[in-house]
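pasting for ref
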Amino acid sequence: METLGLNYVYTSQLFDAVQFDFQKTPKGLIYLTVTDVYGEPPINNKWYTMIIKDGMVIRHASVGYHLRYGDNVKIAGDQLLLTDGKILRLIEDGTGKVTETINLNTLGGNSDNYLVEGMDEDFLLIRSNQQGFLMMIDRKTGAKTLFYKALLT
């Protein structure tokens, strides 16, 4: 364990292939994602994401998945979608304010971690880590559609 600064404790839990990715949003926020892919073969991953405004971390989340790859932060319109696999936070670009919080476990129906595949004002696409099924949720009615059931006969 290494201490950095007065009240900040840093512990490293990084394993094999680590990647750092800095992205700037259209309205000036910065998000840093540290991706850690590990295992033999490397089929596990953990994402650590920090939203930075004016040089300070204002939001953060981390999530681990098995055999799922993507990002735990995405930009949709003028907001960032930040997830820890269980909760999705919609963050206003520019200000960093949380405008909406969505419980993915309630939507998906179990306590698994969920990957957010995409979203707009009408729908949300999520995928459970364990089952891997892609689910579309109508944001106005709450109706759920499992794509494999709708597309395969």
